[in-house]
Write a structure and sequence with these properties.
The complex is a heterodimer of chains A (344) and B (278). Chain A is of the alpha+beta class. Chain A folds into two domains: 231 residues, 3-Layer(aba) Sandwich (Rossmann fold); 104 residues, OB fold (Dihydrolipoamide Acetyltransferase, E2P) (Beta Barrel). Chain A has eight helices and 20 strands. In chain A, strand 1 and strand 2 form a beta hairpin. Chain A is elongated and about 80 Å long. The model of chain A has no long low-confidence stretch (mean pLDDT 90). The model of chain B has no long low-confidence stretch (mean pLDDT 87). Chain B has one domain: MetI-like (MetI-like fold), CATH 1.10.3720.10. Chain B is mainly alpha-helical. The chains are: A alpha+beta (344), B mainly alpha (278). Chains A and B meet through strand 6, helix 2 and helix 4 of A and helix 10 and helix 11 of B.
């Protein structure tokens, strides 16, 4: 099943939640909508689900005009950040709900409903919780039940709104892997919303980065990380050093001091220089484009993180290999191995 | 050491507040009720039975309990609709309507009785058109019913309102996206979630209507066996210095009310147990 939205616009009062969004999702894809809060990603998801309506634009699910249908007719599975389980029903009845409310003509008989619910509870590996109430489950269990409930109606597409947003870090990581393998198993076209870049890059086949109601970049996780299309994407995904620079005739200056970097083909004027933290190579003083004094060093994880005061006055954080000897007070040279300059 | 530790509590004042609670409840509620029972013991079982089985007493009890229950049921339905509108929609004057709900709480019941009587009397604003349709409200059991609805409505609204406010609109969206129609969402999701609060509201509105005196006696007409409520019969007996008769009726009202409230309470507990707190 494919999803296509064209030129969606939606405002809440004077706030533009969506400002002309076009997106195509192919059959069987698992797409992440990634962006900061207020970027319009949840609004986009809710419009596709039929829980909100756009001011203008079009939505097609499998080529059919979805805006002509209500949420009920769209056959879309929706998973809410806060689960939205029916608290007066057991886990079993929650999952069975979508089957029980079907029109009598197509409704399955009781035995078939029981079999289907059993199958779904097995799929989310929680069949032993069938008789519990939602309040007796942990957050991770509740979200898996919510997913089973959404899948019960055999949805054409599956939409997940910050599905792991309310869970703690460890459970999130487990569920991420689990969601990926589940998608591999059932292959339903899925979109999930997240503000967690790690989650998006790890789970999705394709990542849609949004900001201020617009799509900034669409690409594979590798793409958006390795070749960000805009300054926003570079700053939002991965940890970057961001420096305000001037571009003039292919030369780059930082605070009036020329840098030994090239900016061929870039329009002159104020620009932003982006370097990944681990792409800043440490050398002896005078060896690189930058020079600075190490303020302090923290040693944890696979790299050491150093705070460096550049000679121009800016403070940056770099990640250096652990075998590199760095001490507070050292003066070092820094050379970016890779960098990007964006106008503006 | 452990004995001392067990004595210590983070919240101080257990002894004091518990003592005050017991004393106060005894003085205000338990001792007067015990007095009522003791007074009724002056009657022999036979006398007691004769008073209760008299036609007038039975009719008065039937009018009181029957109409109170009917009024509570009407309040349950209409109260739920009012709560829904107040909680789920934003419209001009919402706060005003929200405040108006409390009027029956605050208004002296006699004032309410006079106002309702004037309104529903044969020449009143509502009474006249109803009379044209052949419906007589004032000075009939229908009038009692109307007064009981009037005084009971805030109880349903105020018990259900906070619970509905707590109910996440997302569960309605979830039901909708799972294919439930509006009616299915209401009857399978929303009402069952509200059931404990609805039952409490019903019980409170019923209890209030059973005990109502002031507003009812103005509009009832107070015809023995037809529109005479039990509380009024108690007052009549008292004014005739037939104190034992009065207490016998009072004891029956007390016991029946208690049994009904207790039953509703159990029912509500049962419904609540199926919806454990989040």
């Amino acid at each position: 099943m494919t999803i296509e939205v064209r030129n969606l616009v939606k405002s809440f009062g004077s706030f533009k939640a969506l400002d002309g969004v076009d997106l195509k999702v192919d059959s069987g894809e698992l797409v992440a909508l990634l962006g900061p809060s207020g970027s319009g990603k949840t609004t986009l998801l809710r419009i596709v689900a039929g829980l909100d309506w756009p001011d203008s634009g079009e939505v097609f699910i499998n080529g059919e005009d979805a805006l002509a249908q209500g949420a009920r007719e769209r056959h879309v599975g929706f998973v809410f950040q806060h689960y939205a389980l029916f608290r007066h029903m057991t886990v079993f009845e929650n999952v069975a709900f979508g089957l029980r409310v079907q029109p009598r003509t197509v409704r399955k008989d009781e035995a078939a409903i029981r079999a289907r619910v059993k199958e779904l509870l097995d799929l989310v590996q929680l069949d032993w919780l069938a008789d519990r109430y939602p309040s007796q489950l942990s957050g991770g269990q509740r979200q898996r039940i919510a997913l089973a409930r959404a899948l019960a109606i055999e949805p054409r597409i599956l939409l997940l709104d910050e599905p792991f947003g309310a869970l703690d870090a460890k459970v999130r990581k487990e569920l991420r892997k689990w969601l990926r393998s589940l998608h591999h198993e059932i292959h339903v076209t899925s979109i999930f919303v997240t503000h967690d870049q790690e989650e998006a890059l790890e789970v999705a086949n394709r990542v849609v980065v949004m900001d201020k109601g617009r799509i900034e970049q669409i690409g594979s996780p590798d793409d958006v990380y390795a070749s960000p299309a805009t300054a926003f994407v570079h700053g939002f995904i991965g940890e970057s050093i961001e420096l305000p620079v001037e571009v003039e005739g292919g030369a780059v200056t930082l605070g009036g001091r020329p840098l030994r970097l090239t900016a061929d083909g870039l329009a002159p004027g104020a620009s932003k220089l982006f370097v990944r933290r681990h792409d800043m190579l440490v050398g002896p003083p005078g060896s690189g484009a930058f020079e600075g004094a190490v303020r302090h060093v923290r040693n944890f994880g696979p790299v050491q993180r150093a705070e460096v005061a550049l000679s121009g006055g800016q403070t940056i954080e770099i990640d250096a290999p652990r075998d590199k000897e760095l001490r507070a007070g050292d003066t070092i040279g820094l050379e970016p191995r890779r960098y990007r300059i964006f106008a503006g | 050491m452990s004995a001392v530790a067990a004595q210590r509590r983070t919240l101080p004042g257990f002894g004091l507040t518990m003592g005050l609670t017991l004393t106060w409840l005894s003085v205000i509620i338990l001792i007067p009720l015990a007095g009522l029972f003791l007074k009724s013991l002056e009657l022999s079982p036979e006398q007691f039975w004769n008073i209760l089985s008299s036609r007038r007493t039975l009719n008065a009890l039937r009018v009181s309990f029957g109409l109170a229950f009917a009024a509570a049921c009407v309040n349950l339905v209409m109260g739920s609709v009012i709560v829904w509108a107040l909680v789920r929609y934003r419209f001009p004057g919402r706060r005003l309507f929200d405040a108006i709900v409390d009027v029956p709480f605050a208004l002296p019941t006699a004032v309410a009785g006079v106002a309702l009587t004037a309104l529903f009397a044969e020449k009143g604003w509502l009474g006249a058109p109803l009379a044209a349709l052949g419906i007589k409200v004032a000075f009939t059991p229908v009038g009692i019913f109307v007064a009981m609805i009037f005084i009971g409505i805030p109880f349903v609204v105020r018990t259900v309102q906070p619970v509905l406010q707590d109910l996440d609109p997302e569960i309605e969206e979830a039901a909708g996206s799972l294919g439930a129609s509006r009616w299915q969402t209401i009857f399978r999701v929303i009402l069952p979630s509200l059931a404990p609060a609805l039952l409490t509201g019903l019980a409170l509105a019923f209890a209030r209507a059973v005990g109502e005196y002031g507003s009812v006696i103005f509009i009832a007409g107070n015809l023995p066996n037809v529109s005479e409520i039990a509380p009024l019969l108690i007052v009549i007996r008292l004014s005739e210095f037939r104190y034992a008769d009065a207490t016998a009726i009072a004891v029956v009202m007390l016991v029946v009310s208690f049994v009904i409230i207790f039953a509703v309470n159990r029912l509500q507990r049962w419904a609540q147990s199926r919806i454990p707190a989040r």
